[in-house]
Write a structure and sequence with these properties.
By secondary structure, the chain is an alpha+beta fold. The protein has one domain. The protein contains 5 helices and 11 strands, in the order ααββββββββαβββαα. The protein has an 8-stranded antiparallel β-barrel with strand order 1-2-3-4-11-10-9-6. Strands 7-8 form a two-stranded antiparallel ribbon. The longest helix has 37 residues. It is elongated, with a radius of gyration of 24 Å. The protein starts with a helix and ends with a helix.
Amino acid sequence: MKLYLFICALIATILICPFLIAGESDMVWKKIRKQESNVKAYEGRPHGTIQVSRQYLKAGSKGPLFVVQKHDARQLHYDFRLEVDGVLKSWAIPKGPSMNPAVKRLAVPTDDHPLGYADFEGVIPEGEYGAGIVMVWDIGTYENIKRRSGQIVSMKQCYKDGRIEVFLNGKKLTGGFALIRTVRSKNETPYWLLIKMRDEYASAYRSILARQPKSALTGRTLKQIAADVKKVRTSKKVKKIKKTKSVKKTKRVKKARKG
């Protein structure tokens, strides 16, 4: 009898666990989608321009931009962005990209971002959308390599079809990568998978995220970025206080002379 109950419990666990994991995953994605869903929140925030972004690329690099930004918000994740038709098509990837073709990274599509956001590195203040530290973990150019009947398929069509194949020429990520849209059921939000294609750049060794954790632009860690931003804000605050005191002192002197 005990053996029978044990077997029943084991079968129930096997059947139920996938749904529990899927449900937990959905909660994580909803949080990330909420952080990234309103691109207007980023407009007006100090950041570079597309010309500035291109200064950081490898010498001789040509083609549309790609950028991977490490975002330490409510959920630490990596934002994978591709320049398409004048904007940055974006996906949130919690575990970040991998150079191992056997590893499939789940990705969530987020709203398009302006091109100037490609080189944004700093801290989004508390209370604002996506509050947290942002690092430009990698930046470079890419080439569309998706073909059909011997012809290159446009990136716009690739996105619509749910299958993107690109060759990345970044400071850290190099080689072919595929983004493939997948749906678990008709009633669920479609997700994408980021997969490293099998080529000479693929590697099954230690994670590239662990080996190269610092910014591709400044060589800083997340903590250093936060500390530098804090110094700048503190300096501005001190200057503002000094200016306010100076103005008040000047007013007092003028008032005393008149008296």
